[in-house]
Design a protein that fits this description.
A: 7 helices; B: alpha+beta; 5-stranded mixed sheet; two-stranded antiparallel ribbon; 18% strand; elongated
Chain lengths: 236, 257
């Protein structure tokens, strides 16, 4: 009875017996896989924190009567992009109000109602913050798309190279015995398998994360409008 | 630097937790790889099972003496050499020697024309007999007396016939017993003609398992009778000489009205 093929030892042997180019391709694919999974773990972790912080922040924001109260809780919810937007808008707001404040207000008279010089400036500040926050959210997600699109090709290259050398060996040995043909081809096919192994999760998580970022972006737009409305109502 | 820019600058962190996650990912990959190398091979679908021994036997067939599906070597006439008998040379029949004629007056009659005895070349009497071994036709080729795998015999009648496909099944006696036992439980009289092809596996201890209808006769009764025969049969354990854990058998049930 011949020993069964396809044992685990065989896989290890196949990988170590492959030609240097194929081994290099395998290492490259493994590197891509490690990095893309690292990014996936990282994004998953940060997005979980963001969701928690954002919902808490929105609660606090809607319940508070003053922006200064909201500003006080911001450091503890720092991971939410809404916090960044709020802080930018609040900074712009206070800067404008401080300029509008007459410096020689006598302590006896009640302070006049502060007014904004320009609501569009606040809008611009929010826009800046929003673009920075979206950039932060999208950072490194692109690598997943890169992995998804190029690793199958890298794997294919390894396979083509491996099969090429396999056929060259067949030509040199002059034998088409299945034992001569099949082992190098199996080696070569491992490269394609690794490419797909790296690419498939990357495709999934790229789509997952981009749709999440889209959701956050619309949440941020919504928040910006809400912030502008409140500012306009209270400071003009 | 204005207040908004300060805030925004503060929001962009210098470092993030990516490197830690990359490390975690690397460790996870190494773990998966190591697991992949050391996992048992059946995880990858590799089968270490030895191929099943497959045997094909058919029940039913023409009525005749029950030989149980085994072939007895001595039953068939086989080709054999005939011994050459050295025969005595055949003496030609000669007329008795002529008597000396009496002294008679010669007649005037013309002398009788004597035709020489013409010898036909094809006359066996004249040809030199062939000397050598004569081959007499038998119904079967001479066989090696070693026990062969030819288990089959549809001509055996009683209905058992079949052939053993494997080349290493030791014990035809077991198969004889098996088909006898099965036939004992089999009602072949269903009043219709058909063939049911069943496959089953005999375990080491003689249990019959995995009965599947490989090819139905098209008639439910025939299939169920065949199946029932197998279910009722208690087989002896597989013979010691057979080393595999189980024996797969293809059995044809031929219903001949």
């Amino acid at each position: 009875m011949p020993p069964a093929r396809g044992t685990a030892q065989d896989f290890a042997e196949l990988i170590f017996a492959a030609s240097p180019i194929v081994q290099f391709v395998m290492m490259l694919l493994l590197l891509f896989s490690v990095i893309s999974w690292g990014i996936t773990f990282y994004k998953w972790w940060t997005f979980r924190g963001i969701e928690k912080d954002s919902s808490t922040f929105i609660d606090v924001f809607r319940k508070s009567a003053k922006f200064s109260e909201v500003q006080a809780v911001c450091p503890s919810l720092a991971s939410s992009p809404l916090v960044g937007m709020f802080q930018a808008g609040y900074a712009e707001l206070t800067a404008q109000l401080r300029q509008a404040q007459p410096p020689s207000a006598s302590p006896g008279t009640p302070a006049p109602r502060p007014t904004l010089k320009s609501i569009t400036a606040v809008d611009r500040a929010l826009l800046r913050a929003s673009s920075i926050e979206v950039n932060k959210l999208e950072k490194r997600v692109g690598f997943l798309a890169t992995t998804a699109s190029i690793t199958p090709f890298i794997g294919l290259f390894g396979t083509v190279w491996g099969i090429m050398t396999a056929f060259m060996n067949i030509g040199q040995q002059g034998s088409t015995d299945l034992a001569v043909v099949s082992t190098p081809i199996a080696e070569a096919l491992i490269a394609t398998a690794l490419g797909l192994f790296a690419a498939i999760p990357a495709v999934y998580f790229y789509n997952h994360f981009t749709s999440k970022v889209k959701g956050y972006a619309s949440e941020m737009d919504d928040f910006a409008l809400e912030f502008l409305n409140i500012s306009e109502r209270n400071f003009t | 630097m204005d207040a908004v820019s300060e805030v925004l600058a503060a929001r962009t962190p210098k470092t993030d937790g990516l490197s830690a996650m990359l490390g975690a990912s690397g460790i996870a990959h190494v773990t998966v790889l190591v697991a992949f190398v050391f996992l048992p091979s059946w995880w990858f679908g590799a089968k270490n099972e030895v191929p099943e021994t497959i045997m094909q036997i058919s029940l039913g067939g023409p009525i005749g003496p029950d030989t149980g599906g085994t072939e007895v070597q001595g039953r068939n006439t086989i080709q054999k050499e005939l011994t050459v008998e050295t025969k005595k040379a055949i003496e030609p029949v000669r007329p008795p020697a002529a008597k000396t004629p009496d002294m008679v007056e010669p007649t005037k009659a013309p002398p009788k024309k004597v035709t020489p005895n013409k010898v036909d070349a094809k006359d066996p009497k004249s040809a030199k007999p062939t000397v050598g071994k004569e081959v007499q036709e038998g119904s079967s080729i001479a066989k090696n007396p070693a026990k062969g795998m030819g288990f089959g015999l549809s001509s055996g009648g009683g209905g058992a016939g079949g052939s053993l496909e494997v080349t290493d099944f030791c014990c035809p006696e077991y198969l004889t017993t098996m088909s006898t036992l099965i036939r004992r439980n089999w009602n072949s009289q269903v009043g219709a003609v058909g063939r049911t092809h069943l496959r089953f596996v005999i375990q080491r201890d003689g249990r019959v398992t995995d009965i599947t209808v490989e090819q139905s006769s098209g008639v439910e009764t025939m299939d169920s009778f065949a199946r029932r025969a197998l279910l009722l049969t208690k087989l002896p354990p597989l013979p010691e000489g057979y080393s595999e854990p189980a024996l797969a058998v293809h059995l044809y049930f031929d219903y001949t009205r």
